[in-house]
Every structure is written in structure tokens, then in C-alpha cells.
UniProtKB/TrEMBL annotation:
<dbReference type="Pfam" id="PF12779">
    <property type="entry name" value="WXXGXW"/>
</dbReference>
<protein>
    <recommendedName>
        <fullName>YXWGXW repeat-containing protein</fullName>
    </recommendedName>
</protein>
<dbReference type="InterPro" id="IPR006311">
    <property type="entry name" value="TAT_signal"/>
</dbReference>
<feature type="signal peptide">
    <location>
        <begin position="1"/>
        <end position="27"/>
    </location>
</feature>
<keyword id="KW-0732">Signal</keyword>
<dbReference type="InterPro" id="IPR024447">
    <property type="entry name" value="YXWGXW_rpt"/>
</dbReference>
Length: 105
């Protein structure tokens, strides 16, 4: 039995049935079917613009057990693309973390 199958078989016994595991295609997101939404972000001022970079504001991420604050950071800009910030979205009775990503346009 593979590790993943063994883990899935143990979920009901562990009382984690409320946690929906992401498929391999959704490996960059997490669905939480229980508990409160992430806390509101800290109100921190963004630093001055930096040429050739995009500021990613601080945000809450999920570490597998709890929400953890991720400080803001710079990412190198990509020509012809725009950056969509990481965010939490309410979906199917739970919360899904959507990591930041680049879009054409």
C-alpha cells in the first residue's frame, strides 16, 4: 500500500474527514472544511516602489496545522504579465488558499 493510500485509509480514524485533500492538479491550494477563516491581515505599509519588482503584501498561509503570517516580499516582475496576490477564497463550505501567480496581460 502506498503512503498516500495508507494516509487516506487512516483519515476517518484520525477524525480528519473534514479536511479535503487536494488532487495532484490542485497541489498548490489547500481546502479547509472546518474552523474559522484566516485572521485579517496586519495593516502594514508597503515599501516604496522598486523598479523591476512587484511587492507581495504579507498574508496568512496554512502550515498544515494553523495559520502562519508570511511577511511581505518582493518578486521580480515578468514582462507582459501581472501578478495576482495570494488570497483566501470561501468555497464549498470551507476556505481555499490560492497562492500568488502570474497572468498574461
Amino acid at each position: 500500500m502506498t503512503g498516500r493510500r495508507r494516509f487516506l485509509a487512516l483519515l476517518p480514524a484520525l477524525g480528519l474527514a473534514g479536511l479535503a485533500l487536494p488532487s495532484e492538479a490542485e497541489a498548490q491550494s489547500i481546502i479547509l472544511q472546518f474552523g474559522p477563516p484566516p485572521p485579517p491581515p496586519y495593516a502594514r505599509r508597503a515599501p516604496p516602489p522598486r523598479r523591476g519588482h512587484v511587492w507581495v503584501p504579507g498574508h496568512w498561509r496554512w502550515d498544515g496545522r494553523r495559520h502562519v503570517w508570511q511577511e511581505g516580499y518582493w518578486v521580480r516582475a515578468r514582462r507582459g504579465q501581472r501578478y495576482q496576490e495570494p488570497r483566501w477564497v470561501r468555497e464549498r463550505g470551507g476556505w481555499r488558499y490560492r497562492p500568488g501567480r502570474w497572468h498574461r496581460g
